[in-house]
Amino acid sequence: MSRKFRVLINSTYCKACELCVAVCPKSVLAVGRSTTSKGIHCAETVAPDSCIGCKACSDICPEAAIEIRVEGDGQDRK
Ligand code: SF4
Ligand code: SF4
Predict the structure, then answer these.
(1) Given 3.40.1390.10, 3.30.160.270, 3.30.70.20, 3.50.50.60, which CATH number is that of 5-70?
(2) Confidence at 9, pLDDT banded by 50, 70, 90
(3) Mean per-residue pLDDT for 45-67?
(4) Is residue 24 lining ligand 1, measured as CB closer than 6 Å?
(5) Which residue's alpha carbon is nearest to atom 8 within ligand 2?
């Protein structure tokens, strides 16, 4: 049975550099449409069910704003 992953993006830390959007092999992430209180377009998940848990996004994020969790077992993959 394939595992499902959950992508958590902390908009407090996100600087909207878009590195995570560029690196994701499954197009899970995109530049957000809404503006945060800091006036930036934080990354958001647009296809969360497509995530394969590769952690490329969390590894490249310079602000450590992304956390990948395995759905159901309460454990993350950090
Ligand atoms: S890589 Fe990190 S800081 Fe850059 S857009 Fe993605 S979540 Fe935001
Ligand atoms: S863990 Fe991999 S597939 Fe999932 S959002 Fe990040 S880069 Fe995309």
Answers:
(1) 3.30.70.20
(2) very high
(3) 97
(4) no
(5) 24
Residue-range domain boundaries for the chain: 5-70
pLDDT of 76 strictly over 80: no
Task: Give the nearest ligand 2 atom to 20 CA.
Answer: 7
**CA of residue 38 to ligand 2 center, whole Å:** 25
Q: What is the pTM for the complete model shown?
A: 0.88
Ligand nearest to the CA of 27: 2
Q: Tell me: pLDDT of 78 over 80.
A: no
DSSP string, 4-73: -EEEEE-TTT-----HHHHH-TT--EEE-SS--TTS---EEES-GGG-----HHHHH-TT--EEEEETTT
Neighbours of 51 (CB within 10 A): 21
What is the per-residue pLDDT for 22? 98
> Whose Cα sits closest to atom 1 in ligand 1?
61
Q: Which atom of ligand 1 is nearest to the CA of 9?
A: 7
